[in-house]
Amino acid sequence: MAVMESTLQRMELLLGNNQLKELKKSCVVLIGIGGVGSYCAEALARSGIGKIILVDHDVISPSNLNRQLHATYETINQEKTLAMKERILSFRDDCEVVTYSQFYAAALNESIFADQIDFAVDAIDTVSSKLDFITACLERGVPFISSLGMANRLNPTALRIGELMQTSYDPLAKVMRSQVRKRGICRPIPVVYSIEQPRKQTKVINEQGKTRKEQMPPASSPFVPAAAGLACASYAIRSILERKEAKTDFSHQHGFENSFQ
């Protein structure tokens, strides 16, 4: 008699049924659904997360085709959040996907954090928005990880997970360290970063661009952003399970296991 396979069978073999159930009850918010964020969202869904909140204002463009998981000829000009949602639901019909197709700003926090958030992932491009989101997570006690600069690099094996103040080589990290000090943030900020020295991109692509980034967009490979997204998702999964396990152990030790029945 053939054994009926399930969508998350291989994750259950790795984690066990109880831990998989915890992931299915968990909610992760992800800001930025680009090269890093699209791979992170995919990995979170394929790992068994029950609810994913996606936030991004952008639409898919032809230049995204080389590195963004939801970018295909068919999805060009679609909102990134909706394209990612459709992709997730194509392999996880039991995953709830909530989308905000708008630029992240602090005013959005009330909506984003209305539900119980078990983990947050920052894959935002702009420093001010990154720090606003990190601050929101710290204020609410929501565990998170922030992805630093992944452009202008080729080596995915140079990625590391660590604390912001211990980073080097990364121009974005340097600016963030300075801004963190100015804001008086003293708590650790977990980040995914690269120790590879970034290459310099000086070619003007759009002379009419309003910003330097629009005029000279960063170069990017399919390797490094994808690896960073997978690293963020792995960190999120492990953090959720460790926190759930610690809470369960505490309840058992103190006789709370039947308190909420």
In words, what does this structure look like?
- With 261 residues, this protein is of the alpha/beta class.
- It contains nine helices and seven strands.
- The chain has helices at residues 9-15, 17-24, 35-47, 80-89, 109-112, 127-140, 171-183, 212-215, 224-253, and strands at 27-31, 51-55, 96-100, 119-122, 144-147, 159-163, 190-194.
- A seven-stranded mixed beta sheet has the order 3-2-1-4-5-7-6, with helices on both faces.
- Helix 1 packs across helix 2 and helix 3 crosses helix 9 (224-253).
- The radius of gyration is 19 Å and the shape is globular.
Topology as a string of helices (H) and strands (E): HHEHEHEHEHEEHEHH
> Alpha-carbon distance between the termini?
39 Å
Approximate shape: globular
Could you tell me the mean pLDDT?
Answer: 92
Percent helix among the residues?
25-40%
Which residues form runs of ≥5 with pLDDT under 50?
A: 254-261
Largest sheet: 7 strands, mixed
- Number of helical segments with 4 or more residues: 9
Q: What structural class do the secondary elements suggest?
A: alpha/beta
Beta-sheet strand percentage?
Answer: 5-15%
Beta strand count: 7
Q: What is the radius of gyration?
A: 19 Å
Please give the order of strands in the largest beta sheet: 3-2-1-4-5-7-6
